[in-house]
Specification:
By secondary structure, this protein is α+β, with helices and mostly antiparallel strands. It is built from 38 helices and 33 strands. One of its GO terms (molecular function) is phosphatidylcholine flippase activity.
Length: 1194
């Protein structure tokens, strides 16, 4: 076994007291921005090149570093606290034959420790013995895999009797095992003891993080400790996620830095020319400062001086403001009462504060099915027994089982009285039907008190079936490794358990072989109908036809179905098969294949008993949410471990698939070639029939080549063009692909073809996929599509795709909290996703984009004034403003108004965001902040700087005071320009703010007031008398602002800066309004809120559903070896996928025909050409225009 030097101490923290400061600073200065500002600070400490005091940079830099350091220290403190709490837990360790208490951190590999009921397992242990019979113990693994159901573990028979500490102290076995790894479900090792060797598997192991349940005590040998345990091996670092805006910002910062260098070079060249041509004239009385001795060196120093002065185009306060805005947006999500689940008292939680604006740009949603779209609460819905004796009608009132069955579960609801009557009258087929349900399972029963049974099932499906049998009088009471005890209609019956033929994904069935009290041997089997029907005896064909009809009825309701059958075995048949079974079970090579062959041999000539239907109910609002998200041009892919039939039926239930779906393509090949052929057959109907099949491949190849080229913006209005010819084809298509086919489709030579085909479909369902395949599908879309992805799930099997997607959302449901812990956002209902994206996500994106546009505008307007001033001051790197204004501009004068806009702004109310899903599309197309918008912002900022410099310069150069004294002095010019700047940017943010609150008013006008207050204070005689060398502008503001010509200059500059902006916005609003503009207009003129008509969409035909085993294989082997188990939708589907981006071009058109609706496309999501019958006046009211009589709305 591993070296005994490995202790059990874990450390998830990053720092300690000694390493915190250097390590944290090293991490922070890995950020390009922090390194850039540190570089500027060093330059400012050189007096020959700095015209600004060093504190103008060090104060904000230290502030940012301190805030980040405090945040990191706080997070690490809680990690230390958690680590200490875990490491200091007490454990009983066997030392010199005596049990002694030791801290977990002191446990070492090779120690034998004792665990008691409800204790956490301290390390990865080999189970040696237990207080339970046969060396059994029961554990809960919620911390490992999110599953809350109990699992069983069993010790080797040779060590199961070592329950006494004295015997355990003499244990001297040696364990040779695999190295530490992160595979939770596998362990391979060998125990050498008493000159014998024994194979070890995962069923002999207790992993760290598990909790001992329903077991008084057990002993275990430490195999892996501390960081070597499987829990710690799986706790790798979460991948750091950055938003697309963050990535764009990094690019823009580099561009700005390049622009800064260019400006510095221009001004440095100007300095060299000026010093050479003009400066020498001043050398006699204004010599160069040492060590400058020539004009070239003067230009070199001037370059660095201007780099310092002009660095405010990207102030460090930008990064502080962004983090504050994101934090506030996260709190808005946490405080949203409309995303609070009263049933579970669970609020929504933003577990990450860095991804909020990305919520407004999602194009692909990858969703789990069970527990995410459905409730993962199974209810026994219906059944059909042999000979179709059961009436399937349902009554309004649920049946009361307690009147004749004292062991009935009072929470069980069923409405078919005829089924209960068939049980009471003793119909043999019905009795045998429920006998199968009470015997063929891996459920564990716990009787807390007389008659109070608690079932611990590996899956909700099995729990529902066993509970149904219980209520109909066939009560599963208890089990041992060799017996199953039931109570049949009040009579206790014990069956001898001979064998369990375990379930796996290939077999899709499980069986038990039992000996009845009468001595008969019978095999009971349950499984998918498509599998069992192939193994039926010929005399069951009539029953099969009847059952198939009912299965089709169940399929129409999206139920999970299961077929039941049995077979009688003779003693000779059992003895011969049992011998072959034992040989296969003990085989070293190809054990699984040999067992499968043995199972296949005995599971033949079955007699069909009937079928059951389990309802996994959809969560509230799932269908409506999917329909609305589809209208927002969000594609939803379902990735589930369930079988194909079940997944497809849930697709119909939640309206991903509808009657309008042109065709549902099934890809179910088992080889590379068959999968490729299936995908190409899917492609064929998309293309015009005249195009031959070989031409399809050429077009797809051409599309791929076009994707690899540079981005083209033509008729797509700035959006990315379709990535293939397939995506340009409109149609209601759906793709269903199985896990074994997906494995081939994800290979390098086929993944592009699969992706193009899938993206051309409106709905994609991947069934029977593994957790790794879920992550691979998400990664495929991330890698080849310039789109934001979101993964949502509720179980441990969803963790990989949640971590892989740009945004991970965890549902706090029935499968533990593993998905929540790995997620960026969490809540309890899928329906909250539409509010998270369409309200919080859209607002966050809108606010962040407006914040960034304004921030760059105001800083370019502020900084470029220095550039123009350089041409009039001999390129001497003299600043226009005094240094205190430069320091306070981004910290006090302009920080709070833009912060308020970034936190509170909104274009339309939240109700309109949900009513008009098309409002979400600008985020997907990245229209509000991109490179084009960035250049527009800096162009406006440069224009403003030109006005703010040359208007005051031109006016004041000729102006005089009332006493004739000229106003053309540096300090008057500085005060005038600074005041005009503050007023202009304040007016500009007033125009940019779309939603005013009291906080906005206070910050905007308060910042203007703060400017004048600080200005007069800085220029007062009081501060000058105290710090004469620091405050040089004595009385400048009082003298300057007392002149009427100064205020006229400020007013003129303000009008010239703002008037073009107002004119442009009015023209744009009138000629090319955005959808949000139109919605705001409709809000003003519509007094009555539009309400959607409710309806229910059915579907013709039927599809076969199948029961999906939700638990893993292996539980049958545990039992037979002595290892007991304990254990109304909206009518939106018809147009959900139809969308158009043409509203970005022109939303209002002139009225040419009184019978034609002017608005195209319809804001509600109706496409052009939709019939008036589905486009009624009250649903197509656009402002004051209504379509009443048009035969078709265009």
């Amino acid at each position: 076994y591993p070296s005994r030097g490995h202790n059990n101490c874990i450390m998830t923290s990053k720092y300690n007291i000694i390493t915190f400061l250097p390590v944290n600073l090293f991490e922070q200065f890995q950020e390009v921005a922090n390194t850039y500002f540190l570089f500027l600070l060093i330059l400012q400490l050189i007096p020959q090149i700095s015209s600004l005091s060093w504190f103008t940079t060090i104060v904000p830099l230290v502030l940012v570093l301190s805030i980040t350091a405090v945040k990191d220290a706080t997070d690490d403190y809680f990690r230390h606290k958690s680590d200490n709490q875990v490491n200091n837990r007490q454990s009983q360790v066997l030392i010199n034959g005596i049990l002694q208490k030791e801290k977990w951190m002191n446990v070492r590999v090779g120690d034998i420790i004792k665990l008691e009921n409800n204790q956490f397992v301290a390390a990865d242990l080999l189970l040696l013995s237990s207080s339970e019979p046969h060396g059994l113990c029961y554990i809960e693994t919620a911390e490992l895999d999110g599953e809350t159901n109990m699992k069983v573990r069993q010790s080797l028979s040779v060590t199961s009797e070592l329950g006494d500490p004295n015997h355990l102290a003499q244990f001297d076995g040696e364990v040779v095992c695999e190295p530490p790894n992160n595979k939770l479900d596998r362990f391979c090792g060998t125990l050498y003891w008493r000159e014998c060797k024994y194979g070890l598997s995962n069923q002999n192991m207790l992993l760290r993080g598990c909790v001992l349940r329903n077991t008084e005590s057990c002993y275990g040998l430490v195999i892996f400790a501390g960081p070597d345990t499987k829990l710690m091996q799986n706790s790798g670092r979460t991948k750091f996620k950055r938003t697309s805006i963050d990535r764009l910002m990094n690019t823009l910062v580099l561009w700005i830095f390049g622009f800064l260098v260019c400006m510095g070079v221009i001004l440095a060249i100007g300095n060299a020319v000026w010093e050479r041509e003009v400066g020498f004239l001043f050398q006699s009385y204004l010599p160069w400062d040492p060590p400058v001795d020539n004009f070239l060196f003067s230009a070199f120093l001037s370059f660095w001086s201007y780099v310092i002065i002009l660095n405010t185009v990207v102030p460090i306060s930008l990064y502080v403001s962004v983090e504050v805005i994101r934090l506030c947006h996260s709190y808005f999500i946490n405080w949203d009462r409309r995303m609070f689940c009263n049933r579970s008292s669970t609020p929504a939680e933003a577990r990450s504060t860095t991804l909020n604006e990305e919520l407004g740009q999602v194009e692909y949603i990858f969703s789990d099915k069970t527990g995410t779209l459905t409730q993962n609460i199974m209810t026994f819905n219906n059944s059909i027994s042999a000979y179709d004796i059961l009436a399937l009608s349902q009554r309004a009132q649920p049946l009361d089982f307690s009147t004749w069955n004292p062991l009935a579960d009072r929470d069980f609801c069923f409405y078919d009285a005829s089924l209960l009557e068939a049980v009471k009258v003793g119909e043999p087929a019905v009795h045998e039907f429920f006998r199968v349900l009470s015997l063929c399972h891996t459920v564990m029963s716990e009787e807390k008190s007389e008659g109070e049974l608690v079932y611990k099932a590996q899956s909700p499906d099995e729990g529902a079936l066993v509970t149904a049998a219980r209520n109909f009088g066939f009560v599963f009471r208890s089990r041992t490794p060799s017996t199953i005890t039931t109570q049949e209609l009040g009579k206790a019956v014990t069956y001898t358990l001979l064998a369990i033929l375990d379930f796996n994904n290939i077999r899709k069935r499980m069986s038990v072989i039992v000996r009845t009290p009468e001595g008969r041997i019978r095999l009971y089997c349950k499984g998918a109908d498509t599998v069992l029907f192939e193994r039926l005896h010929s005399c069951s064909h009539d029953v099969m036809n009847i059952t198939s009809d009912h299965l089709n009825e169940y399929a129409g309701d999206g139920l999970r179905t299961l077929a039941l059958a049995y077979r009688d075995l003779s003693e000779e048949q059992w003895a011969e098969w049992a011998e072959r079974y034992r040989g296969a079970d003990k085989a070293i090579d190809c054990r699984e294949d040999r067992l499968a062959a043995a199972y296949e041999e005995i599971e033949q000539d079955l007699m069909l008993l009937g079928a059951t239907a389990i309802e996994d109910k959809l969560q509230e609002g799932v269908a409506e949410t999917i329909a609305i998200l589809s209208l927002a041009n969000i594609k939803i892919w379902v990735l589930t471990g369930d079988k194909q039939e079940t997944a497809v039926n849930i697709g119909y239930s939640c309206k991903m698939l509808t009657d309008d779906t042109t065709e549902v393509f099934i890809v179910n090949g088992h080889t590379v070639q068959s999968v490729r052929e299936d995908l190409r057959l899917v492609c064929h109907p998309f293309i015009c029939p005249q195009i031959q099949f070989h031409a399809i491949n050429r077009m797809m190849e051409s599309a791929r080549t076009r994707d690899g080229g540079k981005e083209v913006e033509t008729q797509w209005g700035g959006a990315s063009p379709p990535t293939s010819v397939l995506e340009s084809i409109s149609g209601e298509f759906a793709l269903v692909i199985s896990g074994h086919s997906l494995a081939h489709a994800l290979e390098a030579d086929m993944e592009q073809e699969f992706l193009e085909t899938a993206c051309a479909c409106r709905a994609v369902i991947c069934c029977r996929v593994t957790p790794l395949q879920k992550a691979m599908v998400v990664e495929l879309v991330k890698r080849h599509k310039n789109a934001v992805t979101l993964a949502i799930g509720d179980g441990a099997n969803d963790v990989s795709m949640i971590k892989t997607a740009h945004i991970g959302v965890g549902i706090s449901g029935q499968e533990g909290i593993q998905a929540v812990l790995a997620s960026d956002y969490s809540f309890s209902q899928f329906r909250f996703l539409q509010r998270l994206l369409l309200v919080h996500g859209r607002w966050s994106y809108l606010r962040m984009c407006r914040f960034l546009c304004y921030f760059f505008y105001k800083n370019f307007a502020f900084t470029m004034v220095h550039f123009w001033f350089g041409f009039f001051c001999g390129f001497s790197a003299q600043t226009v403003y005094d240094q205190y204004f430069i320091t306070l501009y981004n910290i006090v004068y302009t920080s709070l108004p833009v912060l308020a806009m970034g936190i509170f702004d909104q274009d339309v109310p939240e109700q309109r965001s949900l009513e008009y899903p098309k409002l979400y599309e600008p985020g997907q197309l990245n229209l509000l902040f991109n490179k084009r918008e960035f250049f527009i912002c800096i162009a406006q900022g440069i224009y403003t700087s030109v006005v703010l410099f040359f208007i005051p310069y031109g006016v004041l150069s000729q102006a005089t005071q009332s006493n004739g004294v000229p106003l053309a002095d540096y300090q008057t010019f500085a005060v005038t320009t600074a005041t005009a700047l503050v007023i202009v940017v304040s007016v500009q943010i007033s125009l940019d703010t779309g939603y005013w609150t009291a906080i906005n008013h206070f910050f905007v006008w308060g910042s203007v007031g703060a400017y004048f207050t600080i200005l007069f204070t800085m220029h007062s005689s009081v501060l000058f008398n105290i710090f004469p060398k620091q405050f040089h502008f004595l009385g400048s503001s009082q003298n300057t602002l007392a002149q009427p010509v100064v205020w006229l200059t400020i007013a003129l500059a303000t009008v010239i800066c703002i008037a073009p902006v107002l004119a442009f916005r009015f023209l744009k609003l009138d000629l090319k309004p955005q959808l949000s503009d139109t919605v705001r207009y409709t809000q003003l003129v519509q007094q009555k809120k539009w309400k959607p008509a409710l309806g229910r969409l059915g579907r013709g035909g039927s599809r076969r559903s199948g029961y999906a085993f939700a638990h893993q294989e292996g539980f049958g082997e545990l039992i037979t070896s002595g290892k007991n188990m304990r254990l109304s939708s909206l009518a939106l589907a018809t147009f959900a996928s139809r969308h158009s981006a043409s509203w970005i071009d022109t939303l209002r058109k002139k009225k040419h025909n009184p019978h034609i609706c002017m608005f195209s496309p319809c804001l509600r999501g109706f496409p052009p050409g939709s019939p008036v019958s589905s486009h009624s006046p009250q649903t197509c009211s656009q402002a004051n225009w209504t379509c009443y009589t048009a035969p078709r709305c265009v």
